[in-house]
Amino acid sequence: MEIKYYDEYIKYKKLGLRIEQKENVQKFIQSFMDFNEKQQWVIENLPKIELDSNRRIRNELFEEVIFPVLLDGYNNKNINLMLWLVKLEQNYYQNKNIWEKISFKTSLQIIKECYTLDPNNTEVIEKYLEIEIRGINYSEHEWPYGILYSNNFATKDECKNILEEIPFIHKLDRNKKHEKYINEYENRVKEYMSK
Description:
Blueprint: H1 3-15, H2 18-30, H3 35-45, H4 59-75, H5 79-87, H6 89-93, H7 96-99, H8 107-117, H9 122-139, E1 148-149, E2 152-153, H10 156-172, H11 179-193
Helix pairs in contact: 1-2, 3-4, 4-5, 5-8, 8-9, 10-11
């Protein structure tokens, strides 16, 4: 691996020179000798990589270098790499060819797998709670008109499903940071269900 190309890519990215960015990221990708080299680089550098405003990493770098390592980690149930897969969800949601390699699983499905593997892992619990709170934000964004479930307004059965999940979300919220918000959401679901 020739790290100089990555450094050049970063330099040109900061300068906003797209052609030079692309040239250097391609050279960097081509400089890897094998998977082990990719794995070593990803594990050492992934926490330092700056995401764009859409919470993504440049697609070529993600697809050719990072995702293969994360996929291997997912397949081998490496929680740290699975967590990175969750954190970088926007990269695979935007690329059907990559997403299908994990059977179109969502970040929620992957974090549930992480939780099953290690229900005491603090980072897993915090990420799981973050995803659940985002789900609540989406579900109630049409309130008071309705409660959403997937892309449609929730049926009574779907409201029951939501209410059955509330105790678990409270369990994830160990510091009670979101307790009031979760309770308000629960009350809104009950109110909507009674209409």
